[in-house]
Amino acid sequence: METRTRSIPSAAALVVAGHQITRIIKRNGSATICFGPEAEETLLEFIRAKDRIDQLVEQAPEVRS
Prior knowledge:
Layout: E1 3-5, H1 8-16, E2 21-27, E3 30-35, H2 40-59
Helix pairs in contact: 1-2
């Protein structure tokens, strides 16, 4: 089964990791970028890393100028 994402940053991370886009599905002004099934683990790692960074940013104290 192919790996799909609608996120351009996620798709870019997969391309940087060496995965090739197999097709792009455009429907109703939205695009889904498709990769082979081997890209799924990389996509999940990217999402986990993004979630960790989002959480760290949320927890970081505000710095006053």
